[in-house]
Amino acid sequence: MLPRSARARASWNYHLDAGSATAATLTYWMNNLQSIESPHEFLVTLNRPDEIDPDKVIAQFRYDHPVFDGPAIIAQKRRSEIQGSQATFFAGAYWGYGFHEDGVNSALDVCERFGIHL
């Protein structure tokens, strides 16, 4: 599910169907992301199973990204109330938007509390 033009390709490629703001398709170009040298393209595509040749599918998974509702957002804002309580610190993607980078950022925040600057 890469763009036809090689110049338009990126590590993360998205497609929006006309008239549908809720059915975004995202394709990760794994060869580029993971420096995979192969004559074959390895792609991870979300939300477009009907347009992929089943013979080219290596594996299929059901994946849901976390959805942060009102109570979750309120809990995120109250992190300072529990962080460090009873010598316990919390790091995870749940302190942000659920992305890997959010988990790393929350871990860096914990490191800062110990005087470690990375």
Topology:
Blueprint lengths: L11 E4 L9 E5 H4 L9 E4 L23 H8 L1 H4 L17 H14 L5
Antiparallel strand pairs: 1-2, 2-3
Notable characteristics:
118 residues; alpha+beta; 3-stranded antiparallel sheet; 3 strands; 25% helix; 11% strand
Give an overview in words.
The chain is α+β, with helices and mostly antiparallel strands and 118 residues long. It folds into two domains: 6-56, no CATH class; 70-113. 25% of the residues lie in helices and 11% in strands. It has helices spanning 30-33, 70-77, 79-82, 100-113; strands spanning 12-15, 25-29, 43-46. It has a three-stranded antiparallel beta sheet with strand order 1-2-3.
The major pleated sheet works out as: 3 strands, antiparallel
Order of helices and strands: EEHEHHH
Strand order of the largest sheet: 1-2-3
Helix content: 25-40%
Q: Compute the average pLDDT.
A: 90
The global form is elongated
Count up the domains: 2
Count of beta strands = 3
Low-confidence stretches: none
Classification by helices and strands: alpha+beta
In short:
This protein is α+β, with helices and mostly antiparallel strands. The protein is built from 4 helices and 3 strands. Helices cover 25% and strands 11% of the residues.
